[in-house]
Design goal:
Layout: H1 6-15, H2 19-27, E1 33-34, H3 35-42, H4 46-58, E2 62-66, E3 74-78, E4 89-90, E5 95-99, H5 105-117, E6 122-125, H6 134-142, E7 164-167, H7 170-176, E8 183-184, H8 190-193, H9 196-210, E9 213-214
Parallel strand pairs: 4-9, 5-6, 5-7, 7-8
Antiparallel strand pairs: 1-3, 2-3
Helix pairs in contact: 5-9, 6-9
C-alpha cells in the first residue's frame, strides 16, 4: 500500500475540486481512454484538456501510456492507488476478458476475477495461440492462481448485448473497437518482456483494477 503524505493528499483533493477533472476521472474509472475520447466526452479544446491532464498527472492521479498497437495513440489510465475512495462499479455478471492470443493477460484476469468475486468469467483471444504461456502459469502459481488447465479460445462471434467485454491489450482493443468493448485496460504485454517480474507486475495491476469492480451474481 502506498501511504501519501498530507500534502500529497491535499493536492489530489484540490485537483479533483475542478468539475472537468472530476468528470474526467470518473470517465476513466473502469476503462482507459484515448485523448480524443476524453476531448469528445468532456467537450473541451485540446489546450484545456492538456492542462487538466497535466494537473492530474502532476499529483499522481493518472498516467499516460503509448498504445502498443498504434503508436499515434496514448491511453490515459487512472492510478487507483492514489485516488480518494470511489464506490466500486457494478459491471454485471457476464464478463469476458480479451487479449490477442489468450495466453497470458486475459487468462490471468479471468482467474483473478473469479478469486476476488467468487463469480465466473470467460477469457478469449482475437487470434488465439496454441497454449497458455509457461511464464503465465508459473506466475499464477506464485500468486495462488490456477490457469494451467486452460486453453486459448477465440472470441465468440455471437456475444450477447449483455456481455461486458474487457480488453487487456491494445491490439485486441483496436481489433474489436469501442463499439464492442465496454472497458479497455492498456496493460503491457509480459510475454514480449519475458521476465517473471513482468508477469508479477501484470498480476498486481489486474488485481488492483479488478478490485474496483463488482459483479452481479443474479
Amino acid at each position: 500500500m502506498i501511504v501519501s503524505t498530507s500534502q500529497e493528499s491535499a493536492a489530489r483533493f484540490a485537483a479533483l475540486g475542478d468539475v472537468v477533472r472530476l468528470e474526467l476521472v470518473k470517465f476513466i474509472q473502469t476503462s482507459d481512454r484515448t485523448v480524443n475520447e476524453l476531448r469528445e466526452y468532456l467537450e473541451v479544446g485540446s489546450s484545456l484538456l492538456a492542462h487538466h491532464l497535466q494537473v492530474l498527472e502532476d499529483v499522481g492521479l493518472i498516467e499516460r501510456r503509448k498504445s502498443t498497437a498504434d503508436g499515434r495513440k496514448r491511453f490515459v489510465s487512472l492510478r487507483h492507488e492514489n485516488l480518494p475512495h470511489l464506490d466500486r462499479v457494478n459491471v454485471g455478471r457476464d464478463i469476458i476478458f480479451v487479449c490477442t492470443e489468450n495466453i497470458a493477460r486475459s487468462q490471468l484476469a479471468r482467474e483473478i476475477w473469479r478469486q476476488k468475486t467468487g463469480l465466473r468469467a470467460r477469457s478469449a483471444g482475437t487470434k488465439p495461440g496454441k497454449a497458455v504461456h509457461p511464464l503465465a502459469i508459473r506466475a499464477a502459481k506464485r500468486h495462488g492462481l490456477s490457469i494451467e488447465d486452460s486453453s486459448p479460445r477465440m472470441v465468440p462471434a455471437n456475444l450477447s448485448d449483455s456481455t461486458v467485454v474487457i480488453t487487456v491489450c491494445d491490439a485486441a482493443f483496436e481489433e474489436l473497437g469501442r463499439d464492442r468493448v465496454q472497458t479497455h485496460w492498456s496493460i503491457p504485454d509480459p510475454v514480449s518482456i519475458g521476465t517473471d517480474r513482468a508477469f508479477d507486475q501484470v498480476i498486481e495491476e489486474l488485481r488492483d483494477r479488478i478490485s474496483h469492480l463488482k459483479g452481479n451474481p443474479q
